[in-house]
C-alpha cells in the first residue's frame, strides 16, 4: 500500500487509535472527536410495565382519642317488640288504710209470718192468724187477718195448712178477688196438709188474705199445740219509681 491510498489509511488508524485511547476514561463532549462520533438523539422509549404491589407495611401506633362529635338528631321510633314472658307473681302488699264510712242506703223491708190458734175458722171471711212469728213492720193486721201493702213492689206469699176433721177449700185473695185456690180432701183417722204459694205485684194500700170458701163443710183448717197452720209473705223488691 504505497502512495496516497496508503497514507490515507494510516491517517485513519492513527486518528481512531487516538480517539479510542482518549475515550477510555470518559469521553469529553467538547473534543473534536466526540463531535465527530455523536449521533442524533433517539425517540423516548415506551413506558415500562407497572411493578407488582409491595407487601403491606406494619400497623402504626394507635392515635389519640378524638373530640366527641355533636349529638345527632333523634331517630324514628322502632316497631313494638313481642311481649315478654310473664314474670313471677309478687308477694301480697301491705293492707291499705281503712276507708271512710260510706253513706248508708235505705233498705225497704216488709215481711210477716203468722200461725193459726183457733180451730175450724168461719167460712167466707178472712182467716185471722193470731200467732205472730214475725211482724216487725206491722204490715199484717192480726185483728182482721189481712196484710196491707205499704211499699209498692213484688211480693211472695205462701201458706201451709193442717187439714183435720173435714175437707178444706181455701183461696188467697187480693182486693176482694180470689187469686189462687187450694183443695184437700180429708181422710178419716189421718191428718193431712194443704199448701200454696204465689208471686204478686202490689200497690200501696192493696190487701192480701186467706179465706175459706164454700159452705161450712169445707172449713177443716186445723191447729193445736203440735199442729200448725201458717201464712207468710215478704217483699222481694220494691218498685224503683
From TrEMBL:
This protein's source sits in the domain of life called: Eukaryota
Annotated region (Disordered) at: 40-104
Q: Name one GO cellular component term.
A: collagen trimer
Where does this polypeptide localize? Secreted
For the C1q domain, which residue ranges apply?
105-241
Q: Which UniProt keywords apply?
A: Collagen, Hydroxylation, Secreted, Signal
Principal localization? secreted
Transmembrane region positions? none
Q: Where is the composition biased (Basic and acidic residues)?
A: 52-68
What Pfam families would the database entry show?
A: C1q (PF00386), Collagen (PF01391)
Leader sequence residues: 1-22
What is this protein identified as? Adiponectin
> From which organism does this entry originate?
Dryobates pubescens
Amino acid at each position: 500500500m504505497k502512495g496516497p491510498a496508503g497514507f490515507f489509511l494510516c491517517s485513519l488508524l492513527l486518528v481512531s487509535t487516538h480517539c479510542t485511547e482518549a475515550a477510555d476514561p470518559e469521553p469529553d463532549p467538547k473534543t473534536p472527536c466526540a463531535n465527530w462520533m455523536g449521533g442524533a438523539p433517539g425517540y423516548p422509549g415506551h413506558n415500562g410495565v407497572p411493578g407488582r404491589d409491595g407487601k403491606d407495611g406494619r400497623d402504626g401506633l394507635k392515635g389519640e382519642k378524638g373530640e366527641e362529635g355533636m349529638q345527632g338528631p333523634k331517630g324514628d321510633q322502632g316497631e313494638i317488640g313481642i311481649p315478654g314472658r310473664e314474670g313471677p307473681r309478687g308477694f301480697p302488699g301491705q293492707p291499705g288504710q281503712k276507708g271512710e264510712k260510706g253513706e248508708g242506703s235505705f233498705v225497704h223491708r216488709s215481711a210477716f209470718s203468722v200461725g193459726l190458734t183457733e180451730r175450724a175458722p168461719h167460712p167466707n171471711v178472712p182467716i185471722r192468724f193470731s200467732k205472730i212469728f214475725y211482724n216487725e213492720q206491722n204490715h199484717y193486721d192480726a185483728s182482721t187477718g189481712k196484710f196491707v201493702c205499704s211499699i209498692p213492689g213484688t211480693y211472695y206469699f205462701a201458706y201451709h195448712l193442717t187439714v183435720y176433721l173435714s175437707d178444706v177449700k181455701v183461696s188467697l185473695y187480693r182486693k176482694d178477688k180470689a187469686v189462687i185456690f187450694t183443695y184437700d180432701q180429708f181422710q178419716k183417722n189421718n191428718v193431712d196438709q194443704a199448701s200454696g204459694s204465689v208471686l204478686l205485684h202490689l200497690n200501696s194500700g192493696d190487701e192480701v188474705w186467706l179465706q175459706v170458701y164454700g159452705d161450712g163443710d169445707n172449713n177443716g183448717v186445723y191447729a193445736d199445740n203440735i199442729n200448725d197452720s201458717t201464712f207468710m209473705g215478704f217483699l222481694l223488691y220494691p218498685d224503683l219509681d
